[in-house]
Design a protein that fits this description.
The protein is mainly β and 449 residues long. It folds into three domains: 126 residues, Sandwich (Immunoglobulin-like); 140 residues, Cupredoxins -  blue copper proteins (Immunoglobulin-like, Sandwich), CATH 2.60.40; 124 residues, Cupredoxins -  blue copper proteins (Immunoglobulin-like). It has three helices and 34 strands. β1 and β2 form a beta hairpin.
Length: 449
């Protein structure tokens, strides 16, 4: 393990933070059978009173699924909703048949039906699980169908506390979910953003007490439909140790702030203040400059023994140390809103048929790929490639940022390039993680043979 590298958080970085309450008990079948997870209606106290929601096992966020690296995930989704569903294992690489994207990799699970997901958990990290049913995903997730998957490394980093935070927002009116999920203006704009911020399914902020000087491992995920969150730490010195499930050399983000797109996950390490009563805060800065607390952790009790250096997790040996950009298949995606009254979005000047249409490109297994995202909209995009880990390329040269990503934020009117090695056979989705954009047509796929 390496000593921390306090490298600045370079331009273009997108991050994500998560924290969850104790896992709800999952219902397992026999020791030889899959774990049963039901997608069904439930109730949650998000605001002042109870709200009707949709949830895995009837709760939001759903039960935390936790495994050790090398174990097998075996889950049976039972759909007790009146609309089709699926489970997409957001961030897991490979195993295309189990990716859970309907209609690309499977048919949607009809009401009353079930589907078995079974896959090897070869890599550790923080992942999420959620539905991916084209055209229905915004409503399914917006009503609460989402959860976390943790795959623990064999030798966890030394820490006194393991804190999980799921960040979300809600639009409620008298404790009922407000508004339709097919608003054309939202689909062509910033997406569905709710004013009520939530952490682990409760109105923010989450409040915790930890021993003074104790070390906290914080795992964050942004599971909101559309909100890109600029998160800032106050009162502590955080170090990022993993982004989008992949370890990186530990570094302190610039101004202790990270931009967090929907679907992004971050893992950080920090030490609580040494003085009893001092607070560690994580807050979201609003457009008006207001600080909205998401986490307030208070130092309590006698000081814990200082742990010393913060170390990095081992790098993933399955990812290449470099990508041969000269040999890469280069593909551009020019994304812009369609004409008024027409399709919501176009890619390369044409309305897409999303996952029912032809592939954007096809490559042989092992081919390096460079994607150029050209955003011609007045709002940001959060582009995500399924089944692979990407490098965000520098804007002005052939270098890349020193961490791997599942998705990247494309500011309004800007272009970003990413590169990856297409090493997993199958049909893989490319889409905007702002879910209303995806449903409006910012969705396509590529084939690896």
């Amino acid at each position: 393990m390496r000593q921390p590298n306090r490298r600045a958080f370079l331009s273009g970085v997108a991050a994500s933070l998560v924290s969850l309450p104790p896992a709800a008990p999952g219902r397992a079948a026999s020791p030889m059978g899959p774990r049963i997870i039901e997608a069904r209606p439930g109730k949650a106290t998000i605001g002042a009173g109870e709200t009707d929601i949709l949830g895995f096992d009837g709760v939001t966020p759903g039960p935390v699924l936790r495994y050790k690296q090398g174990q097998e995930l075996s889950v049976r989704l039972v759909n007790k909703l009146d609309i089709p569903a699926s489970i997409h294992w957001h961030g897991l690489r490979g195993e295309n048949a189990m990716d859970g994207v309907a209609p690309l990799t499977q048919s949607a699970v009809a009401p009353g039906a079930s589907f078995d997901y079974r896959r090897k958990l070869a890599e550790p990290g923080l992942f999420c699980y959620r539905p991916s049913v084209y055209g229905k995903t915004p409503e399914l997730m917006g009503r609460g169908l989402k959860g976390l998957l943790i795959v623990d490394e064999p030798d966890p980093l030394p820490a006194d506390h393991d804190l999980l935070l799921v960040l979300d927002d809600w639009r409620l009116a008298q404790d009922k979910i407000d508004g339709a999920f097919d608003d054309a203006a939202e689909a062509r704009g910033a997406g569905r953003i709710g004013p009520l911020l939530a952490v682990n399914g409760k109105a923010a902020p989450a409040r915790r007490e930890f021993q003074a000087n104790s070390r906290v491992r914080l795992r964050l995920a942004n599971l909101a439909n559309a909100r890109i969150m600029i998160l800032t730490f106050d009162g502590v010195q955080p170090f990022v140790v993993a982004i989008d499930s992949q370890p990186c050399d530990a570094f302190e983000p610039v101004r202790r702030s990270i931009p967090v797109a929907p679907g992004a996950r971050f893992e950080l390490i920090f030490d609580m203040p040494a003085t009893e009563g001092s607070k560690a805060r994580l807050f979201l800065r609003g457009a008006d400059g207001a600080e909205n607390d998401l986490l307030v952790a208070t130092a309590q009790g006698a000081k814990a023994e200082k742990r010393g250096l913060i170390y990095s997790l081992p790098q993933n040996p399955a990812l290449p140390p470099e990508i041969k950009l000269n040999n890469a298949r280069k593909v551009d995606l020019v994304v812009e809103p369609g004409p008024a009254g027409g399709p919501g979005w176009t890619i390369n000047g044409a309305a897409t048929k999303a996952y029912d249409g032809p592939p954007l490109f096809s490559v042989k297994q092992g081919t390096p790929v460079t994607l150029g995202y050209v955003n011609k909209a007045k709002v940001p995009l959060a582009m995500h490639v399924h089944g692979h880990a990407m490098r965000l390329l520098h804007d002005l040269d052939d270098g890349w940022e020193p961490y791997w990503r599942n998705g990247v934020i494309i500011p309004a009117g800007r272009t970003k390039h990413v590169s990856f090695v297409a090493n997993s056979p199958g049909k893989w989705a490319i889409h905007d993680d702002i879910l209303e954009h995806e449903a409006g047509g910012v969705a396509t796929w590529f084939d690896v043979a």
